Amino acid sequence: MGKNELLNPTQIGNWHLKTKIVMAPMTRSFANNNTGTVGEDIVNYYRRRAKDGIGLIITEGIIPSPRGKGTFGVPGLYTNSQVDSWRKVTEAIHEEGGKIVAQLWHVGRLTHRELTGGFPPQAPSPIKADGLVHRLRKPYDTPEEMSLEDIKEVIKEYISAARNAMKAGFDGVEIHGAHGYLIDQFNSEITNKRTDEYGGDLLNRLSFIKEVLKAVIKEVGKDKTIIRFSEIKDDIPGYRWANPEENIKAFIQVFNEVGIQIIHPSTNHFTEKVSNDMTFHQLVRKYWDGIIIGVGNLNPEIASKAIKEGTIDLAAFGRSLIANPDFVHKIKEGRPLKSYQAAIDLKYLY
């Protein structure tokens, strides 16, 4: 058996990555709940993965404002103290020869005023989500429909958070436009019933993601901006696009218009066929010539094969990287990976 493709170094724009392995963004909730700052435990957690040889680390979701918060212990990038705390993380990663980007995450309607400083959730339309808020275990609050002024303000918050990410020493940012959170709420006909320029047909609904991307790219550069998007929604488990290929074509049209170069299509099951006997990432590759980060319950063998076939360029791993801080060395040495156990692995940072 030849060398796993994941272990090869690669050049992505100005980033020299030691491997083609990406650490997927995963909510850990170990930030200070009151200040949104991160401590030495987070520094050591990310440092250990960079030292192991992870090519690119995407942080857990970092909120651009207090109203973007969807659970306890979420870090932010909207105060100087938050910026200073993240700078210790980025310095540690760079000392180990790694690269790290900050994922900017606004949950939109998927929260409660107890988490947002007393403010109601923000959303494109005042449609309450079903289910319970993560860890708070209370029903989601009814969101406030965002005015045009609110939309402009949130875009400014993304700009400020992206600027702060650069001040903190991050190599770039990822915009979380997936999984039913704020940006994806604008994308979807389920959560967006607006009749203005941000509602209506799919391309109109994609106006918000387009404006956020344009603003962030202007701030940090198109070579330092990643967009994560998906069909799946965390709060609507059975949701599927009626026509996956047409939806993907619309998203790709927007990504081409703004000039982004790296995309992160997200799905729970990488090998699942979604349309015309093709997987989600194969459909994306059909219309996208740029860099694709693959994700979705991958194992090293499936990921290596997908890279060799040209479906993806980089492969992101989540739970297996929580459970195996020595993930890269285990692949190199042919050792088995430890199985992820939520009851144990979510309780600690190691």
Describe it:
This protein has 350 residues and is an alpha/beta fold. The protein has a single domain (7-316), classed as TIM Barrel. It contains 12 helices and 14 strands. The protein has helices at 40-52, 80-95, 148-167, 182-187, 202-205, 207-220, 244-258, 280-287, 300-309, 319-323, 327-333, 342-345; strands spanning 10-12, 15-17, 21-23, 56-62, 99-104, 122-123, 144-145, 172-176, 225-230, 262-266, 273-275, 278-279, 291-294, 314-317. The chain has an 8-stranded parallel barrel, surrounded by 6 helices. α7 (244-258) links the parallel β9 and β10. α1 (40-52) packs parallel to α2, α3 (148-167) packs parallel to α6 and α7 (244-258) crosses α8. The longest helix has 20 residues, at 148-167.
Shape: globular
Calculate the mean pLDDT score and round it. Answer: 97
Instruction: Give the CATH superfamily.
Output: Aldolase class I
Q: How are the strands of the largest sheet arranged?
A: 3-4-5-8-9-10-13-14
* Individual helix count: 12
Number of strands: 14
Order of helices and strands: EEEHEHEEEHEHHHEHEEEHEHEHHH
As a whole number of angstroms, the C-alpha radius of gyration is: 19 Å
Which CATH C-level class is it?
Alpha Beta
State the separation between the terminal residues, measured CA to CA: 31 Å
Query: Beta fraction of the residues?
Result: 15-25%
Domain NADH:flavin oxidoreductase/NADH oxidase N-terminal: 6-337
Protein name: Alkene reductase
InterPro entries: Aldolase_TIM, OxRdtase_FMN_N, Oye-like
GO molecular function: FMN binding; oxidoreductase activity
